[in-house]
Amino acid sequence: MQNGSSSQPVNPLAITTMTLPRGTVGQSYSAQLSASGGTPPRTWSIVLGQLAAGLSLNSGTGAIIGTPTQAGDFSFTVGVVDSSLLQQETAVASLIGSIQPPPITITVKSLPTPALGQPYNAQLEASGGTPPYTWLIVGGSLPLGLELNASTGQIAGTPMEVGAFSFSIQVTDSSVPASSSSLIIPKHSAKLSA
Questions:
Q1: Quick check: is 171 in a domain?
Q2: pLDDT confidence of 43, banded at 50, 70, 90?
Q3: Predicted TM-score of the model (pTM)
Q4: Domain range for residue 128?
Q5: What is the CATH number of the domain that holds 12?
Q6: Does 194 map to a domain?
Q7: What's the distance, CA 123 to chain centroid?
Q8: Cα 74–173–119 angle (5° rounding)?
Q9: What average pLDDT does this structure show over 2-13?
Q10: What DSSP designation does 4 have?
């Protein structure tokens, strides 16, 4: 007498992963796809769409690993096949992942010293986050005659006072929610022109 249940798995094959962790550009990423039922071992594959640039799927383990190189959302359909001998089972699931830009950082740590009555121009710079950026002085002040362009990060003008000055600068990106970075620019001693 043939036992009809011997060729059927106790539980049907199903993908149990519903969400993926967020990643960050330039930082190591790891996510584990999981399944239940069927007959292990299982084989994984991307059947529609694609992973974020820099990521790959290990077909034997279901691990998504790598270092993302681009920010943004990505969507794909993953499939898994079991190892039953008589009738392989398959399962598919659609997933969405998200890769965030690297944290915003002010890259200029100091500025050239201004000279009284002489045209001055200095450029603040930042990296990471989601441009465009917005610049703001959040502590201290610039010398009389100098102004900060909030859109470009440029400090320009003609200094009209002598003395030491320092200020705290903050840059905010355009992501939702916005991220920001702050930096204290150390004191400068303004010089009298010859």
A1: yes
A2: very high
A3: 0.71
A4: 105-189
A5: 2.60.40.10
A6: no
A7: 25
A8: 140
A9: 59
A10: G
